[in-house]
Amino acid sequence: MEKNRVRIAFCFLVLVSLLGGVLFQLNRPREQEYSGEEFLMDTLVSISTYGTDTTLLRQATAEAFREMRRLADLTDRFTDGNNSGMTSDIVRINAMAGIEPVIVDRDVFRMLQLAKEYYALTDGAFDITIGPVMDLWGFGKPEQTLPAADDLWEALSLVDSNDLILNEKEQSAFLKRKGMSLDLGAVAKGYAVEKAAQILEEAGIERAIINAGGNIRVIGQKAPQQGWQVGIQDPRDPQALVGILSLQNESAVTSGDYQRYKEIAGKRYHHLLSARTGYPVESMMSVTVVTKDSGEADLLSTALFLMEPEQALAYLSQHKNAEAILITAEKQILCTPGLKEKLKLTPGEEYVDEQKVNDKG
Amino acid sequence: MSKRLMTKADTKLLIAVILLSLVAYAAIHYSSLSFPAEGRVLIKAGGEVVQELLLSADRPAQRISVQGKTAPAIIEIEQGRVRVAEAFCPDQICVKQGWIDTPGSSIVCVPNELVIYLPAGTDDGATAVDAITR
Amino acid sequence: MSKTQRLVYLSLFVTLASALGILESALPNPFPLPGVKLGLANIVTLQVLYLYGLKDGLAISLLRVLFTSLFVGTFLSVGFYLSLTGAVFSTLVMAFLFKYVPALSMMGVSIAGAVSHNVGQLLAAAALIQTGYIFYYLPVLLLSGIPTGLATGYVACLSLKHLARKKFF
Fold it and tell me: CA A229, CA A342: separation in Å to the nearest integer?
């Protein structure tokens, strides 16, 4: 009968450990991921949230997308299909150019204010009234000819952010001269992403990544002691990275000459146009800005791209509110010193990694 | 009741299974070194996966037509890589991107709501990033 | 025993197997690896095979998979086809071993059954999802068949001996 007892004891042990395993698994709050994807603002936006409460994740993500959709509708330059019957504020402002001010949504007003601030800060390099010139180039239309010099001159004369009048009390915007038009491509995406991030944070989400076609905003960390790993695309090789950033609660946005371009007579003309010459700026290949606010990152990445590298570095050392990685046309990689902890460079051989640090403090 | 619970044959079987699993382990790890391009490619249109194909090094070239939101697109797959050969979209960004072959990379055609995606393998732990800014 | 008696016993077995299957699906998996199951229903399959042979064993297996999936709501899903393939394959293997390899006790047969159940599921998954990556899990699935096989075999063995003693058959 001893054997029986042993047998019973053995069975009991097995049962208890199985039960223990089951109970353990039942009680462990398991982390879930909830992701959504939508085509918005001319790109694929994906939001991935992490947490233990799936209902919360789902609701917060849905709300974030709702807000992004709302902002997308308000800032669309062209009313084709994506507008849910509501005309975009930008379309209205452009339509009323030279006629009268247009009352706009608070967020749109904020975007315009930011754009004007950066116009001043960058000595006019960054200008959202570049609409007429963008239209002349027709990025997105099949025409394959360079704009005529006269047409370009005329279009450039309509580019001047000083003629964008914002009335804070009325929350209105007015383009003083007929023919002027706004293009919010450099700020709308980042701003929308930042609002989405705010919604997620307010809902209590502690870990998330928003990726709007390369415009990245992360919330929290990937794991304790480890930030989210965000790669920086090599501007000349879509499958390679020049570096990896380790980020927490911040944004990384890139402006590059490879994102949108036209090929005319064998030469590439990209979409980041100088407000002075009307032609694509040739001094940089890509600029990646790292800072908390996605809207600012978006604005700044375009603004810095439109400057000469030395100008850009001077700006960064003066204003210190953001970090950046500049890749010049000569394949030089320049980074701001604040990135030392966060950035690991992994460039191909043809790049010159100059840790050309800003000495001015 | 005094018979042993497990016979000699049982034990032999048990050992055989253990050995078999070790062999399988070795086989898998050896072979994944020589067939790196044994991945998959997922094609999504309008958010739904419409095609899932193997992307292996010795697969003959294929051209597939995929219906996008506005117009069909032609996707080419050969020797472990994939690209959008033709698409009816204004910017042709997807076509200009060319071939992709690294797990984790993707081609997106926004007007057609097409996503061609190479899912990242489980072995890529070392260099996998959570997102790419571009 | 008469045909009716046998039918009744088999019905009881099917119910028991289905109940075990449902119970198993309600419990969170103590082994968080994909494809690793406790295989509690195999306890019944083993017994039926031992007592009644292949035909009945196969019938019980198929019905068990059907009823469990209907109840749990996975009928005709990918998991259903995986379960089906695994169950059929392992039943055939176990029946074969019972008949032609008498040197194996119920424990050994159970191990073989658990292992072949997992392998069968893996093959079905590879066919349905069309990916080579899945074979990555083969070593784990093979090994996990040992403890689960031992556990279910032991229970089957014990309960059979107990039932035999009480002269149910």
Answer: 10
**Can you give A260-308 as a three-state secondary structure string?**
CEEEECCEEEECCECCCCCCECCCEEEEEEEECCHHHHHHHHHHHHCCC
Indicate whether this complex's ipTM tops 0.90.
Answer: no
State the DSSP H helix or E strand holding residue A16, giving kind and residue range, or none if neither: helix A2-27
CB-based contact C30 A26, cutoff 8 Å: no
Identify the helix (H) or strand (E) that includes residue C44. Answer: helix C42-52
Nearest to A22 among C27, C154, C158 (CB): C27
> Which of A7, A11, A18 is opposite residue C30, by nearest beta carbon?
A18
- Do residue B20 and residue B59 come from a single domain? no
CATH code assigned at C127: 1.10.1760.20
Q: Where are the alpha helices (DSSP H) in A138-226?
A: 149-157, 188-203
What is this structure's pTM?
A: 0.67
Domain A32-75+186-354, second-level architecture: Roll (3.10)
C105/B20 CB distance under 8 A: no
Residues 6+ apart with CB under 8 A from C34: C137
Q: CA torsion angle for A4, A5, A7, A10 (degrees, to 10)?
A: 180
- Length of chain A (residues): 361
pLDDT digits (tens, 9 = 90+) for A185-239: 889 999 999 999 999 999 999 999 999 999 999 999 988 888 999 999 999 888 8
CB atoms within 10 A of CB C33: 11
CATH class (in words) of the domain with range A89-175: mainly alpha
